[in-house]
Design brief:
Elements: H1 4-15, H2 24-29, H3 33-45, H4 52-55
Length: about 55
């Protein structure tokens, strides 16, 4: 089973998102609402293919 970082890194490579758009750990933990807001579009665009921890 892959660790969370490995899953996030694989997702970054798959969609070729910038580091700012691919910091899903920040969104998952609710660390910065500003970062979460910048993710809203990217998350919605790939909602059916994102790892489950991203949408939790």
């Amino acid at each position: 089973m892959l660790g969370r970082r490995a899953v996030v890194r694989r997702h970054q490579q798959r969609y070729r998102l910038s580091d700012q758009l691919a910091c899903y750990e920040c969104v998952n933990h609710g660390v910065a609402s500003r970062v979460a807001d910048s993710h809203s579009r990217a998350t919605a665009a790939h909602a059916d293919t994102l790892p489950s921890h991203v949408m939790s």
